[in-house]
Structure formats: structure tokens, C-alpha cells
Amino acid sequence: MSEQPSGSPETPPAAAAAPESPLLVRYSRRAMACEFAVLLDPVRYPHGAAAALAALNEVDRLEELLTVFRPESQISRINVLGYQQPVAVEPEVMEVLLLSKRLWEQTQGAFDITTGALSKAWGFFRRQGRMPQAAQLQAALDRTGSHHLHLDPDSGTVRLAVPGVELNLGSIGKGYALDRAAVKLVEAGVQDFLFHGGRSSVLARGSQDPRDPQQGFWIGIAHPLQPDRRLARVRLRDAALGTSGCGTQFFHHQGRRWAHVIDPRSGEPVQGVFSVTVRAPTAALADGLATAFFVLGPEQARAFCRRRSELALFMLVQGRGQSYRIVRENWPEEDLRLQEPFDRWVVREAE
Q1: Looking at the domain assignment, is residue 296 inside a domain?
Q2: What's the CA gap between 43 and 226, in Å, rounded?
Q3: Three-state DSSP class for 304?
Q4: How far apart are CA 232 and CA 328, in angstroms?
Q5: How many Cα neighbours within 13 Å face the side chain of 168?
Q6: Element (H, E) at 36
Q7: 143 vs 149: CA distance, rounded Å
Q8: What is the pLDDT along the chain (351 residues), one digit of tens a residue?
Q9: N or C: which end of the chain has fewer CB within 10 A?
Q10: Which domain holds residue 101?
Q11: Within a domain: residue 138?
Q12: From CA 58, how far away is CA 287, in angstroms rounded?
């Protein structure tokens, strides 16, 4: 895995800079089934390559702990042994599990990392969507729910209350890795950077142009069904974005479109929501809430954000007939720019 410098910040999701802004160099590596990349100014930070390497190494280290696709990871060990005995885990694993359970409580179960059995029942675990039998779906539901996840921070152990519970951190792991790896950049003295994991998780610190500390970075929100197009651009400054969308993992059955975001309370894929983007203080929180809001739907998501001013919401949901509508909350006008035209999409702002 090598670091690849590039003179353009236009990588998905891209920072769209004014031409006079300093040129960013990009250092990237494949991890967690996507590309992680650090973008920074090499003139201002001549040691940036070493700092970016340390950050990307941290992502690799965390992937070894958190992935479900490696049998030796600590999450895989919990899934295999957690019902039989308490499983000792590293502090980072305990930290992300505690955060996940808090989000489960705060969202009334809409965010849940115990959905591994449901994902397999619907075929999304291996990206081979299918309709499950009723008995198969009920069996998966019986093994779903973070009330089955028992955490003991004092002893550093994890236990599962029923057999067959399967943890999967796909909805929060990339964001958590960004948060932890970004510490390496800050410790190295890099104060202005953009750090992203694939299209769905972005973390920004400082500003692309040190002459304008309030500029931050401009990030594109991709069209969920046309990922080479943008719905909007948003300004990100000392914050993170998380996006959950249904544009790539779905299948059709009896005239209906079934996407991979599953409501853990019903066991059914969510209908009527196409993408959710959340701005939050940390990437883990942004990722987790993007998934939770996808499940909760626009009204409950907006109500959640109204109670927490540090959060902002941008959703694309089904409207009447063939129309779609944008739902947003807590975005200052100067920090969000819709990218029209929307072609065949009839986009209406939610009231």
C-alpha cells in the first residue's frame, strides 16, 4: 500500500476550492473496503507525508481490530465466543462499542450494530440481495438488538446474552477510524487537512486556505442514484460528515426496490429514503446518526437535530408520485449550496 500524491483535491467526496487556494496533495491507501485519503498543503506542512503515513497506519491497525471480514479480529472473536464467555477487548474496541450502544439508546433502536444476522438473511452481507423466508427473518430478528450486548468497561470484556448475535461495525467503523487516525495528524502539528474514508465519511480540520480560516473545506454531497453528480456542496470546518445511501446495494423483487439499510426494529429494509448526510463534531457520530436518521425518517430526524444544535441534516426522500424532496435542518445558508439542475428529479424543499 503506497501513498499517492495528487495535485487535485477533487476526490470523492471532494473539496472544491477556489483556484487561488493552496494546492493540496493527497495521500491514500485502501482499507475497510474503500480508499482512505489525507489531503493537506505540502508547502505549509513539509512533514505532511510522514504525518499522513502515520494516520493511514492507524487506520490499518484499527481495521485489524474492528472488521468482521477477518476471523482473527476482536469483533469476529466476540461473534464466535461472546455467548460462551466474556471476551477481552482492546480499549479502542470498548470505546466504539460503548458509543454504539449509547446511539442505540438515544435513537430508540434505530441505530444498532447487532444487525449481522439480518444483513445475512437479506443477502446484503455478501452483496447478493434476496428475499428471506418469514421464518428466517424472524430467527434473525430474535438475534438482533443491542440489549443483547453486555459491556463491562471495568474489566474490558464483552458478552452476548443470546447465541447467534453478530456485531457489525460497518455503520460506524470508518468514522471511528477517521477520528482516531486524525489524532496522529494533529499530534504531528498538522492543523489543516481533509481526511476521508470512501464517499461516506469525511473529517475536516482547519481551512484549506490559511489566509481565510473561516473558509474550511467545501465537500460535495453525491446524488444517491447518479454518484458522478452532486446534489449539494457544503462547507465543513472542524467537523465531520457521514452519509448513508441506498444507491449501490439493492435488488428488485415483485416491482419493489429493496435497499441494504435495514430497520433493526422490524427487520425490513427502509423504504422512501434515498440518502442522508449528517454533520457532527466527530466522524463516528456523523456516521452512526446518518444510519439512524435513514431508519427514523425525515420528521424524527429533524426533531432529533432540533434538540442538538451541533448537528445538521440533509436528506433526499420520496415525495408524492414520482417527485423527491430535500429535507434539511440546522444548515446555515452560507454553508450549503444546492447544485441545480436536478435533471428529471422534481426536488421540493420540505416545509
Answers
A1: no
A2: 35
A3: helix
A4: 12
A5: 21
A6: strand 34-40
A7: 11
A8: 333 333 333 333 333 333 356 789 999 999 999 999 999 999 999 999 999 999 999 999 999 999 999 999 999 999 999 999 999 999 999 999 999 999 999 999 999 999 988 888 877 655 665 667 788 889 989 999 999 999 999 999 999 999 999 999 999 999 999 999 999 999 999 999 999 999 889 999 999 998 888 899 999 998 887 777 888 999 999 999 999 876 555 444 345 555 568 899 998 888 888 889 999 999 999 999 999 999 999 999 999 999 999 999 999 998 776 678 899 999 999 999 988 655 555 455 554
A9: C
A10: 74-160
A11: yes
A12: 19
Which H or E run includes 49? helix 48-66
Q: How many structural domains comprise the chain?
A: 1
CATH of the domain at 152: 1.10.3980.10
- What three-state secondary structure class fits 26? strand
Q: Pick from 290, 336, 334, 333: which is nearest to 311 by CA?
A: 290
Give me 222's grid cell. Answer: 453525491
Query: Which residues, in sequence order, are CB contacts of 259 under 8 Å at separation 6+?
Result: 246, 249, 250, 269, 270
- 149 in a domain, yes or no? yes
Task: Give residue 5's identity as a one-letter amino acid code.
Answer: P
- Residue 48's H or E segment, with its range, is helix 48-66
For residue 163, count CB atoms less than 10 angstroms from its CB and return exposed for 0-12, middle for 13-18, buried for 19 or more: exposed
Helices and strands, number each (H, E), in the chain: 8, 17
In a domain? residue 182 = no
Q: Tell me which residue has cell 474496541.
A: 93
* Sign of the torsion formed by the C-alpha atoms of 286, 289, 294 and 300: negative
Q: Could you identify the residue written with the cell 427487520? A: 267
Give the pairing type, strands 347-349 and 324-329: parallel
- Is residue 26 within 8 A of residue 38, CB to CB? The reply is yes
C-alpha cell at 146: 443491542
Query: 107 with 296: CB under 8 angstroms?
Result: yes
The Cβ of residue 105 has, within 10 Å, a number of other Cβ atoms equal to: 12
Distances 67 to 76, 101, 281 between C-alpha atoms, Å? 7, 18, 24
Whole-angstrom distance, CA of residue 339 vs CA of residue 19: 19
Q: Which grid coordinates belong to 247? A: 444507491
